[in-house]
Amino acid sequence: MKTLNVTNPINRSPFRRALLLIGPALVIIAALTAVPARATPQSGVTSLTIANGTFADIDVYAKTDIDPGLETDFWKARIDTKGASHLYILQNTVIPGGTFGWHSHTGPSLVIVVSGTATEYEGNDPTCTPHLHPAGSTFVDAGEASGHLVRNDSTNDNLVVIVVRLIPEALVPTQRIDKPNPGYCPNIN
Description:
There is one protein chain. By secondary structure, the chain is mainly beta. The protein has one domain: Jelly Rolls, CATH 2.60.120.10. It has one helix and twelve strands. It has one helix at 14-33, and strands at 43-55, 59-65, 74-80, 85-99, 103-105, 109-115, 117-122, 131-134, 138-141, 148-151, 159-168, 176-178. Strands 1-4-11-6-9 form a five-stranded antiparallel beta sheet, with no helix packed on it. Strands 8-7-10 form a three-stranded antiparallel beta sheet, with no helix packed on it. A two-stranded antiparallel ribbon has the order 2-3. Strand 2 (59-65) and strand 3 (74-80) form a beta hairpin. It is extended and about 90 Å long. Residues 30-36 have low confidence and may be disordered.
């Protein structure tokens, strides 16, 4: 009867050892980079900062009786931030065919459409439904991680919007975060 000697390691060539070590790493790298997510940058957009400033913690609650005849007809607002915040007031002008590209923000934005029509797509909408915001209308960009895209589909008129954006002071350098197309809207950039 033969005795199996297990104290001697299996003799492998240096090439085979390298393959065993590098092979799995190459597979992982290939899987992670096979379909690169590409940001969709803005084009045809000019931004003008009208004003900006920094606030310490904000804790404001406002309640106004808009019809004294009714006991429960109140307008209410709450702004509650922890830590310093930065407020921007911007005027963005988008030429015909221009786009903000897919992006998100680190805080909410209130948007007033001054002229033209803004066409907005939401990054978490699998139906890729366009939301039209004509001159005189408003909309809120919650600054969600899924992002959105706003563009000017006009062939003649500029789109002009005023944006009031509140973001954490610590994230001022990243008030806009470019995003890849979410995949629901393959031809919308």
